[in-house]
Write a structure and sequence with these properties.
Elements: E1 7-17, E2 24-29, E3 32-37, E4 47-51, E5 55-58, E6 73-78, E7 85-92, E8 96-98, E9 101-103, E10 106-109, H1 110-113, H2 126-129, E11 132-133, E12 145-148, H3 169-172, E13 177-182, E14 186-192, E15 198-201, E16 205-207, H4 212-219, E17 230-237, E18 252-260, E19 263-264, H5 272-276, H6 293-300, E20 315-320, H7 328-334, E21 339-343, H8 345-350
Antiparallel strand pairs: 1-2, 1-4, 2-3, 4-10, 5-7, 5-11, 6-7, 8-9, 12-16, 13-20, 14-15, 14-17, 15-16, 17-18, 18-19, 20-21
Length: 353
């Protein structure tokens, strides 16, 4: 899957009023709503820079000075010039609610960023904007990492948000997909290579096999279920793991994908051990793909109790059945993962994400 475009050139799809507000309004970009100042003078058709949530706006960049008073976080990144780890501090864009309206991301004029106004819509301008993707956990450091993510047997665990897929929604609606709960944990991939050796990976790195992720997978029979050339992907959740937002006491794996020779396979073909520890499947009729992108996002808002009674769930992932043909547009956007997600806005607000 292509790397997430943290900042891209996009077109304003619509401008709408905010109830009882004189100085702000809503701007629609792709499937996202962003609250903006009326003094920006935005109108449908304008080309702007759209910053996705999770962007870290560096404190030492004068273009983002005004944002720093809203709160600052620190991220460890690799300096592209030296290859060494350096600290970067800045404000992180999160989901907020203003006058009853969810606002996700940031819109800035291209001119304020020094970006050529003729840059085509959809272009990735993250580098020009000088921002970083903020991840809640700091990257693993030298003692834990033993190599890069191994992509021979599975792609990195990632799914685009439906709000970024508005241009292919009309095709997605007609496809067969299995809706599953998105579980908020530590993403893990375990692959057994052609020589029978099992490797364990975080989102971006191969890590030591004695890590908790591997120990739990071995305890629950997930490693033994893998034949050479197979891989499983799961979220590890429980006490002491990230923020344990699902309030589970025991480290628990939730399998969301199984691969064979770098091809994601349908749940009906999973080994029994993976099914025993799978993410919950939701009712296909209730969560079928229908209506508009906005309709689906609103429907997921407030989802709770699918994993832990009474507790908000992170969202839903729709996994496309493996035996159906996709257009080049959809296949290119989803890549081998063949899935997409909607994150529960109430969950984002509750946890400051």
């Amino acid at each position: 899957m292509a790397e997430r475009k943290m900042v891209s050139v996009q077109e304003i799809a619509g401008i709408y009023p905010v109830k009882d507000a004189d100085r702000i309004e809503k701007a629609k970009v792709l499937g996202w709503i962003v609250v903006v100042g009326k003094d920006m003078g935005l109108k449908p058709g304008d080309h702007v820079a759209y910053f996705e949530v999770d962007c870290l706006l560096p404190a030492d960049d004068p273009r983002y000075a005004a944002f720093q008073k809203r709160g600052v976080k620190t991220l460890i990144v690799e300096d592209p010039n030296t290859g060494k780890d350096v600290e970067v501090s800045g404000h992180v864009l999160r989901t907020v609610r203003l006058r009853g309206t969810y606002s996700q991301g940031l819109i800035m004029p291209l001119s304020e960023l020094g970006i050529d106004p003729e840059t085509p819509v959809g272009a990735d301008v993250t580098r020009e904007a000088g921002v970083y993707k903020y991840e809640e956990l700091p990257p693993l450091r030298g003692g834990d990492m033993i190599g890069p993510f191994g992509s021979a047997y599975a792609s990195k665990s990632d799914a685009p948000r439906l709000q970024n897929l508005t241009d292919v929604w009309s095709e997605l609606v007609g496809l067969r997909a299995t809706p599953t709960v998105k579980v908020d944990g530590t993403s893990t991939t375990i692959a057994r290579d052609d020589n029978g050796i099992a490797h364990v990976y975080s989102r971006n790195w191969e890590i030591k096999p004695e890590c908790t992720n591997m120990v739990v997978a071995q305890r629950d029979g997930l490693v033994d279920a893998l034949e050479p050339g197979m891989a499983i992907q799961f979220e590890l959740v429980g006490l002491g793991i990230q923020s344990n937002r699902l309030k589970l006491r025991r480290p628990t794996p939730f399998v969301f994908a199984v691969w064979r020779n770098h091809r994601k396979i349908n749940r009906s073909d999973w080994p029994q051990a993976c099914l025993n520890h799978a993410v919950p499947v939701l009712d296909a009729a209730r969560w079928r793909l229908e209506g508009s992108v906005e309709d689906m996002v609103a429907k997921v808002d407030g989802l709770r109790g699918c994993v832990t009674d009474g507790v908000l769930d992170e969202g839903i992932v729709w996994h496309l059945d493996a035996d159906q043909l996709l257009s080049s547009d959809v296949a290119g956007r989803l890549s081998a993962n063949r899935c997409f997600k909607i994150i529960n806005n109430k969950y984002l607000l509750k946890h400051g994400l």
